[in-house]
Amino acid sequence: MTGKKRTYIVGFSGILLMIALSFWAFGRDRMAKSTFITAKVQRASISNTISATGTLEALRTVQIGSQVSGQVSALYADYNAVVKKGQLLAALDPRPAASQVTTAQAHVAASDAQVHSAEADLLNQQASVAQAEANVRIAEVALQNAKLMFERAQELDSHGLVSKNDFDTAKTNFDSSDAKLQQAQAALQQAQTMIRSRQASIDSAKANVVASKADFERSQINMDMTKVYSPVDGVVISRNVDVGQTVAASLQAPVLFTIANDLTQMQVKASVDEADIGKLNDNANVRFTVDAYPNDVFRGKIAEIRLEPQTVQNVVTYSVIIGVANPEMKLRPGMTANLTITVDSKDNVLTVPNAAFRFTPDGAAGQAGQAGQAQGRHGSTIWILDENGQPQPKTVRTGISDGSRTEIVADDIAEGADVVTGDLSKKPAAANSSAGQRQGGGLSFGMPGIGGAGGIGGGPRGGGR
Question: How far apart (Å, rounded) are the C-alpha atoms in residues 79 and 238?
Fold first, then answer.
């Protein structure tokens, strides 16, 4: 080999060596760079929320029943029917009620007749009293005449001027007149007593009239109740009877229909755990979803927080009522609502991912972290990358959290700073080996004696020099 060729080979080898060294240095530099996972400190709106479940209900649900027994003869409303107040919903067979009305009418007529009869008896008895009074007066006159004749006979008898027969006749007439007067007076008293009896009969007959009229009115009401009307405007959400079915109202009024008063305004009855109930306030904002419309978010406000506890398997919850507008009528009674209740919210505040509070670097950085945590006993520590890409501990005060990001208050952290949330180097060994091969696999030139069999590597995982 000539000297010139040797020079070319040496020069070419030197160039290759320089290139290899450059790649090796590049690999080392790349490996030296941070493997930290970071996120930006951002200003955002954030809300603290509570999750709960509940059931949709109509604001007012009215159960329509029948107060009389009978067989359903007709139905005039069905499921989902929109009804107005006073609208006919159903009818029962009216014949039994009509028969009761007829019977009650007859009783009223009979009671009226009894009153008229008792009044006539009273008039007759009043006439009897008048006759008895006249008889008493006649008897009194007859007694006076008989007394006068007897007194005259006594005077004549004292002078021996009257016969014994005439004297006895005068005395007998006097005694007879006195007896007749007593008899007339007794008859008058009896007639007067009968007057009171006849008046009592009239009063009783009139009371029977009142009772009969009440029975008649009740039978008419029962007759009217064979027709069932809606007491409110609303929507029929359930119908519990069919034509031909017999309903019995002897003990409890059977429910024929259930009507929701107004489904454009509804409520959610939610159960909130006792640990969260103290965080809630009236008029707090609520958003929720239902399984029927998973992509739609509905909104409402807390209308009532009830004091009565509900205990199920030793878990205490409280009922919370949320008012909900339903203008599109998508929501229906009985749907399950998955609720998110806003407890607190803030706008335009610094926030970081919650993972930033769980990160602690290893090694020397970990020692710095211990110092930072010692300084942050009155706050929380997060790690911010400095200009050299190294994590530095920062003590911050935390505010509200939405479960993924948390509000922070710190004077020395600016919006847009890189906060560390994790470290790729903490992945399992197999992943690290794979990452090392990807990051520092080296550059192969296929030249013996340089870089080994795998080529010229970049770092301890590259298999190089």
Answer: 6
